[in-house]
Amino acid sequence: MYFTFAKQWEDYLFFVFRVFVGLLFFMHGSQKIFGWFGAKGIVALGSLMGVVGVGETLVGLGILLGFFTRLAALGGLVIMVGAWIRVHLPQGINPLGNGGETALLYFLAFLVLLAYGARKWSLEHHLLKKELF
Length: 133
Description:
By secondary structure, the protein is mostly helical. It has helices at about 1-10, 10-35, 50-65, 70-90, 95-100, 100-115, 125-130.
């Protein structure tokens, strides 16, 4: 019964998943570069955190809107690997101890988005009538 229900709502559930991942990653990046969403300050765009913030914002928007979703997910994967290696791994390998559980969850979400793309409801499909990436 569950599988029938899930299959019936698959497109809707994936759309919600994509929108939430994109929105949250967009918020994460725009916090750094614009100071939005309760940020404690704005980072310099020329700094490593500024570059990462711009990347997170663009990746988040791409995934949220469904525009070049696979390419955006690949960019998100690169950012999360960098975050894991540069920030979290030096504090230990345990994600709960080094604060890296969010980076790992985003990494897995980006793997799913890389595999499946934007699917049915996306700006890319609406404008281009197909997924290019």
